[in-house]
Task: structure prediction
Amino acid sequence: MDTKKVKPETIAAQALGWVDETTKAVSPPIHMSTTYIRDADNQYRNGRVYARDHNPSFDQAESVLCALEHGAQAALFASGMAAATAVFQALKPGDHVIAPKVMYWSLRNWLVNFASQWGLQVEFIDVHDPLQLQRALQPGKTHLVWAETPANPLWTITDIAATADIAHKAGALLAVDSTTASPVLTRPLTLGADIVMHSATKYLNGHSDLIAGALVTREDSEYWKRVKMVRAQIGGTMGSFEAWLLLRGMRTLFLRVDAACRSAQRIAEHFESHTQIAEVLYPGLASFAGHVVAAKQMRGGFGGMLSIRVKAGEARAIATAANVELWKRATSLGGVESLIEHRASVEGAGTPVPFDLLRLSVGIENADDLIADLEQALKRAST
Ligand code: PLP
Result:
């Protein structure tokens, strides 16, 4: 498939148009072998030695991701956390890195509890604020800026092009967790980011039945080689069947994300002026702080994630989640079924998340059904 001639939806639907040469199958075989034959003269001419880093079952999903993100190379990982932590583990003890104050909670915990002890100097700031970023960068010492946009669970928007420019001028790389946007809505590498990360557990797979992660790089640099080395040596690699499931999930990525965006926009607009809701956080609302930047860097929608703050406070928010019938009370995001969670309860002590906040992951159900279910849950919670 000539990826320059076709639209990204076509690339995803046909997984690059690949057909198995031996069987003519349109879906790839699953390679379970862990090891590959060495040539008699002691060479490995086919380029594959051992499946931890050379598994052919990764090839197609990595190529599709590369094409969708406009990257040079991609690497699948066993989870989003394995992918994200590899980006930091490829740095050296003593390196200074900058990360957002409000970001995916488990990664923040890892940075605080592990990366800092391992010798990285981690500084948390409002990465979306250019002035704070400029002040925090230490040229020659800061090696990486980590951004997440839209960022969990307040959906804060970071201007990727502006942030990349500021980071690069100080000699730092920019890595973007683009899990929430997915390649459908944002392509960070084309805006200047150096690495894009996905928890492929979410939109890329889309069916809440796989833990997976991925990185895509803008160029095949020395740093990227270290990231690949971390994957191979620490061994946070994916299984063959999981890689196959991910590829299957990505074929419907555009349909699923489009449906989720349209419903999320409707739900956000419906509850924006609701008597029981204090605030709706959604990048697609004109009233949202990051809306203008989101409209500039997101194409085709503002994502399937939003949060609502319940006016009567924490107990009413938890009671609302307790009374839903259609929404599923569970953590995670990006699946075909809609999820609701009291986010502060998941994050625990020290969370920066307001206690009245419910995080909503909008799936592909009918938007009217989802609105009606939230309405009845709010009503029952208040009686
Ligand atoms: N980044 C974001 C934005 C996430 O929401 C998550 C998981 O919830 C991760 C990273 C971690 O991904 P995983 O659960 O696949 O390890």
User: Anything to note?
Assistant: The two ends are 58 Å apart (CA to CA). The first strand starts at residue 73 and ends at 77. The domain at 8-250 is CATH 3.40.640.10 (Aspartate Aminotransferase; domain 2). The mean pLDDT is 97.
